[in-house]
Amino acid sequence: MDESVRKAVLGAVPSLRAFAISLCGNVDRADDLVQETLMRALANIDSFQPGTNMSAWLFTILRNHFRSEYRKRRREVEDSDGRYAESLKTQPEQHGQIEFREFREALTQLPADQREALILVGASGFSYEEAANICGCAVGTIKSRVNRARTRLAELMSIDGVDDFGPDEQTRAVLARGGE
Amino acid sequence: MTERKPVGQQKPMETAETRNRKANEKPAKLSREVQARLGQQLRNLYDDVVNQGVPDRFTDLLNQINGDGKKDEK
């Protein structure tokens, strides 16, 4: 294996894991999914086009594998929201914010398609076009899912206006000036 | 053009409930600030995992594949 390929693959692993956890809702299963993804990817490394985005390629493989593998176990997939919620509850409150906890809980309540789109665009740093390629859908579909996800999150967190968001008075003042 | 049709089935009469639902389904315009805050929360969550780096099992896996060509898929 080419050293640059190996580096690119390894470099994508942390982000792949974060994405896999959001799909599986379970760290152990997510790591198995990442491992299976890497083995598939490396077995088919010839089909990777040098110069294109290695990360996006791996994300696509991971997502497709997840979809085909877990479609059979539909009940488990449907339960994944509950598991996701559970896996998040075990995380320490590193950020020490009520708002952050509320956010995590709200995220578990999003439909899987919306959460996936939001994470790809909002956290993994993919463009709408890349996210659409990864999910095998139209760019407009991704945009719509991301918008719905954001709106739903704001609703779930009861953000009616900027005043409701953020305990920090100074931030609030700044936000109030710019918001509606 | 402020109204959107509800996504679900339509009811002949508009009740308070359907009005509320409609309001909820209207793509609320979130301010940039709210979007920025939501985005920051999302990245915090994601980066908690990303910052764990590459667990040994994956480094080992790649080394193994590197060493003996292709590893058999189970």
The largest interface is: A-B, 48 and 38 residues
Strand content of chain B: under 5%
**Major sheet attributes of chain A:** none
Extract low-pLDDT stretches of chain A: 162-170
Alpha plus pi helix count of chain A: 10
Helical fraction of chain B: 55-70%
The number of distinct helices of chain B, counting runs of at least 4 residues, comes to 3
Backbone CA Rg of chain A: 18 Å
What does this protein look like?
The complex is a heterodimer of chains A (180) and B (74). Chain A has ten helices and no strands. In chain A, α1 (3-24) packs across α3 (54-71) and α8 crosses α9. The model of chain A is unreliable at 162-170 (pLDDT under 50). The longest helix of chain A is centred in the N-terminal third of the chain and has 22 residues, at 3-24. Chain A is mainly α and 180 residues long. Chain A folds into two domains: 1-89, RNA polymerase sigma factor, region 2, helix turn helix motif (Rna Polymerase Sigma Factor, Chain: A, Orthogonal Bundle); 92-180, Winged helix-like DNA-binding domain superfamily/Winged helix DNA-binding domain (Arc Repressor Mutant, subunit A). Helix content of chain A is 72%, strand content 0%. Chain B has 74 residues and is mostly helical. Chain B has a domain at 30-67. Chain B is 55% helix and 0% strand. Chain B has three helices and no strands. Chain B has helices spanning 16-25, 32-50, 56-67. Chain B is rod-shaped and about 55 Å long. Mean pLDDT of chain B is 70; it is low at 22-26 and 69-74. The A-B interface holds A 1, 6, 9-10, 13-15, 17-18, 21-22, 31, 34-35, 38-40, 42-43, 91, 94-95, 99-100, 103-104, 107, 118-119, 122-124, 147-148, 150-151, 153-155, 159, 162, 165-166, 174-175, 178-180 and B 24, 27-35, 37-39, 41-55, 57-59, 61-62, 65-66, 70-71, 73.
Summarize the structure.
The complex is a heterodimer of chains A (180) and B (74). Chain A folds into 2 domains: 1-89, Orthogonal Bundle (Rna Polymerase Sigma Factor, Chain: A), CATH 1.10.1740.10; 92-180, Winged helix-like DNA-binding domain superfamily/Winged helix DNA-binding domain (Arc Repressor Mutant, subunit A, Orthogonal Bundle), CATH 1.10.10. In chain A, 72% of the residues lie in helices and 0% in strands.
